[in-house]
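Exercise: predict the fold of this chain.
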Amino acid sequence: MTHPLDLGTAAWRKSSYSHGGDNDCVEVADNYPGLVPVRDSKSPSGPVLVFPAKAWAAFTRQMAEA
């Protein structure tokens, strides 16, 4: 059984991997050990994707190499 993640106190920041100005930004929340919540900065009340921290690290590492 899974429990919804309470994001009410999330400290969102724009990802350093977001490029292209103010319009195409990904925001991440760092204060969830083992998890990385991700959202679109243009829609802060919209859906949030939550990734295991290891998966997010592998993804960003791969993108940095591309």
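Check your answer against the key: The CA atoms of residues 27 and 62 lie 18 Å apart.
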